[in-house]
Amino acid sequence: MRLENKIAVVTGAASGFGEGIARRFVAEGAKVVIADLNGEAAEKVAADIGENAIAVVADVSKGDDVTAMIDAACEKWGGIDILVNNAGYSHRNRPMLEVTEDEFDRIFDVNVKSIYLGAQASVPKFRERGAGVILNVASTAGVRPRPGLTWYNGSKGAAITLTKSMAVELAPEKIRVVAINPVAGETGMLHLFMGEDTPEKRAQFKSSIPLGRLSTPTDIANAALFLCSDEAEFLTGVCMEVDGGRCI
Known about the structure:
Helices cover 46% and strands 15% of the residues. The chain has 248 residues and is an alpha/beta fold. It has a single domain (7-242), classed as Rossmann fold. It has a 7-stranded parallel β-sheet, with helices on both faces. Helix 3 (63-77) runs parallel beside helix 4 (101-129). The protein starts with 6 loop residues before the first strand and ends in a 6-residue tail after the last strand. The mean pLDDT is 96.
């Protein structure tokens, strides 16, 4: 049990990468808050996982919601050890000048502001426990951008830089900050990255990945488990590509 007695909050955990992470964490001994904008889906995942998971409805771009999801972990289990900032948002793949201001704002609210809000709510709790881990799910888009996703790419570049800066500042307090950079995967946002989900578009995406396939929630969950476990206690500021070689 690599996360035995650990308490985690995972955002965007009702589906995709977040659900994969939450399920793997519980399987490894953690207790997990399934935080998601879709309350019905979050409740379903939590019920399926069992007594070591609870669901909380949260819009990660809103401070009160983020505070509430952290408080839910503390009230239920007495604290928090791990925060996974997984919830994400993207515009559809298209020329950068065609993306609306409202879309731009939503991308940066969900992908960047949420990291700020998560730190505001979780770091004081970590300080009480003398340690903690923040895992940001960034993207290969912040390392090797694809055309047509400029503003999304920029938001993930910000997430990577924030991870490194937070890691340096919080290290003296034994609070680690790390990130995962997934390549495009089998999630609900895949059609946005491709512009349209067709066999031709999938083949085009796969052809850019040396190992020849898209990522899966299991791939991301495995990396998240390692980075958030005590096995990685000397790693901070690491932004790990989980990408089948895409960023080589």
